[in-house]
C-alpha cells in the first residue's frame, strides 16, 4: 500500500468485527489494524467476545421447544386449525403438538390413523396408547435439563404422586440388572386419563421409558376377552416399543434399542411389576 | 398466517430472550408473550419483510413495558440456573463456567446496551435493523454497541483475572 489509509473510526472497527464494513473500505481498515498493535489487540478482543457471545445458550437451539410455547401459538390458531394442518410440522414439533394439542384438535386425525392401522393392533385404543408412549419417549428422552418432572432422588414422592394421579398403586420396576437406573418420572395427559412416564438411563446415557396408563373400557374389555397379556412389538412410532396389558392397565417400554434388547428390558420390567 | 413460520423462530427467540433476561423462566415467559402478541398483531407484519426482525421488535416492546412496570431485580444468575448450567453442557467444546461468567457480566450492562450487543452479535442483525427494532437512531446503536463492548470486556477481565490490567482503549 502506497498511501497511508485514513485511520479507521471506532464505528468502522465495530463494523469490521461484525462483518458489516463496506467492502471497498475493508482492506484499508484491515491494513491499519495490522500495522497498529493496539488496534489489533482491541479488534482481537472484540472478536473473542463476539465468538463467546455467539456460543452463549447455544443448547437452546437444539432443545425441543417447550409445550407451553407451542401452545401459545396453538391458542391463537384454533380457529384456523384444519384437519391435517398440524401434521405437516416436522419431527419433535409434531410430537409436542400431538402429545399436548390432540385434545382440542378433535378426533379426525386420530380416526384416520386408527382406520389405517386397525389391522396392526386388535384394539385401536391400545394402538394409540403405544403410539402416545413412543411420542412421549421421543419428546422427553433427548431433554438435557428437564427430562423428568420428579427426579429419582425423590422416588417415594414420585411413586406416591403418580399412583394418586393414575388412581392405582404404581411401582417402579428395578432394571439395574440390565444396567438401567431410574432418572425420574412425569405425568402426561392421555386419551382416557392421566398417564405416567418413568425414565431410565444406562451408564452410556442411553434412555428408555416405561409408559403406563389406564386403557379405555373398550380396549380393556377387548384384551380381557382375549386374555392377552403377551408382549407385542410396535415399530410404527418414532421409537420402537414392547407393550402389554395387565388388568386394564397398559404398559409400554420404549427406546431406541434393538428389538431383542428391548424385549429383555420389557420382560424384566413385567416380571418385576407383577 | 402460517404458524409454522413462527414456530421456526422459537428456538432463536428463546436463546435471545435467555441472554437478554439472564433467567430461563423469565425468558420463556417473554417468548410466550411475544408469540401471543405476534399472533394477534399478525396483520402488522409486512409480508415479505424480515419476520425475525419484526418478532424482535414485538419482543422488545413487551420487554420495555415489563421493565417500566417492574424494574429488573438485581443482576443475579439464579442458583437453579447456575446448577443447571453446570450440569447441562454435555458438549465438551462448551465451557459452562465461561457461559455463566459471560451471562453474569452481561446482566451488569444496562438493558439498552445489552440488547444492542446481543442483536448484533448473537442474532447477526445489521446496525440499521437494530435501529429499527429498538426504535433508536443509527448513531445511538453505534454508541451503545461501543460502550457495551468496552464495558463487557472490562467486566470479563475482572471476572477471570482480577489483577490483570485490561486492554486499554486507544488514545
From TrEMBL, chain A:
Origin superkingdom: Bacteria
Transmembrane segments: 86-105
Keywords, in A-Z order: Membrane, Transmembrane, Transmembrane helix
Protein name (Swiss-Prot/TrEMBL): Anti-sigma factor RsiW
Taxonomic lineage from the root: Bacteria, Pseudomonadati, Pseudomonadota, Betaproteobacteria, Burkholderiales
Organism (species): Variovorax beijingensis
